[in-house]
Amino acid sequence: MKETITNAGRASVMIQALPYIHRFRGKTVVVKYGGNAMISDELKNAVIEDIVFMACVGIRTVLVHGGGPEIEAVLKKIGKESRFINGLRYTDAETMEVVQMVLCGKVNKDITAMIQKAGGSAMGLCGLDGAMLRARRIKGDQDYGLVGEIIEVNTSSINAVLDNGIIPVISSVAYNIGTDAPAGSAGTAGSMDVPADAGGALNVNADLAAAQIAAALKAEKIILMTDVRGVLKNINDPDSLISVIRRGELDSLKKEGIVSKGMIPKTDCCSLALEGGVGKAHIIDGRLPHALMIELFTDEGIGTMIE
Q1: What is the pTM of this model?
Q2: Mean per-residue pLDDT of the chain
Q3: Which residues are CB-neighbours of 30 under 8 A, at least 6 positions away?
């Protein structure tokens, strides 16, 4: 039997959210959106509604997105096999064209349009716009192709959008500043010191992009939407969620094997954001409708908070 919520019940829920609305009004919250929450229409609509609500109550909301499944689908259509090295997609020139087309084009503009349809105001951006995300190709023992690590985030365009009451929707494609360029200098108009390999796009990890954007904005929170409940004491027991973790506890949790496999890069991104001045980091299950609202505006929350 479907539970019916009375008007009094609805009012009670809104009153419980009021302290959190006051607390976060005027603060910046960066949401990394990806995974299964981008595939299901029901979940997509719920996420977009949450994002619009956050903006409507005065939270400076930044949405950073990936789009791995969509990239994979296009690569399959053109008969190109994906290759991953240490969890990163090997990105040759042809793959980079697909990544840029899918992330900066279709996915970014689809999300922007959904926010508009839900009553919000959004602007689609990517790291190439104003060289917002400045990156160099990853160096090391492995060749990742056109995969970059972000060196610097130029927040001027993001803040300009936020200052006008608009939600920035940012795709994780960065501007290549070149191998030998110092941060803050490459790509400057009229510069004679731009490295020969500067220019063009680099594929960057969306979680890392969100963490570095949050740190550059000195955000109150970063929220990573994933395909698991959060950090679990027992990976086989979904009810063993750890609700709060101190940053200093992460190393011991890794040694104990509690933080392992795909959760390691997630918690590393949270640590990176916290070290950069972000207030708190959250890992939540994007498969649950309105997970953002529950995590932000209730006492219990829904995922793991790292502080």
Answers
A1: 0.92
A2: 91
A3: 62, 64, 210, 213, 214, 217, 219, 221, 222, 223, 278
